[in-house]
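3.2 Worked example (two chains)
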Amino acid sequence: MASSQNASDTGSAAPAVRKRSRFQVLTLTEAAAERLREILDNTDREVAAVRLGVKKGGCAGMEYTMEYAETIAPGEDVVEDKGVKLIVDPKAVLFLLGTEMDYQVGKMSSGFVFNNPNQTSACGCGESVEIAPASPEALAQAGL
């Protein structure tokens, strides 16, 4: 990934957006990247990226979240993969580490699918999941 600039490089006292060079929190399949590009290209808003996160909810305990991000806040992790810029909510990094984001189209539905090694279970409807934070071994392997 790109390196971060510090305040002395820019002449500004504003903190830099954190960009990781040693690991990438998540990756995209070609299908996910293509669908995200379509979504971003068809919005009427000025959008810097798509923000991903997790929140408490559903019968299994957590849900994945996606929203347009008009700005990138200091301290947010930025992932650039296959020409798409994603922002990972800092509170979600440990839950999303190692995840592959895919987009699948079926006869009855289509949507983003998160192949997450930290997911321990999912509800029957597929709307919520149980996710454990990444293990110390996974953190060490990622260089954290």
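3.2.1 Second chain
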Amino acid sequence: MELEASFERDLEAAVLEQAAHELVGKPNNVVYKAVKASHNRLDQSDYDTDPVKESFVKPEVERSGSRLKITWGWTHEAAQFFETGTSPHRVNGQPVLSFIWEDAPPGIVEEFGDGVNPDPRVFFQSVDVDGIDELRFTRAGLRVLRHHMQS
């Protein structure tokens, strides 16, 4: 029995297609599970991380020869700080910072008076931040990906 000359190439293409389908194409795929793990890790922060999660860039699949490259990420400028953490620092407004503070601490209520009760939005020229804990949210997703790839 003789195989057609294109058999190996066709087989390789079929294997790559199936791998891409398993990783990103089917519902509840491996990359989806990895991203979900990353977002669950972000949810453990005391900060509002929804803007980071909303900046998620859908996976892109690139095929090159016998390789499959899948990239995804988050474009929000704060994403890197939630990954690696920060030391205490000052954030300056340009020109001001605006926060919605539903349950403002007594010091803020005192500073803003009754104005903070009907409208929880407060404005500052700058704020001092204690720092952001290192969440390693992308690594949490990569651990899930690695686990699925090894099983």
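3.3 Remarks
The helical segments are 7-25, 30-42, 50-54, 79-84, 106-112, 137-150.
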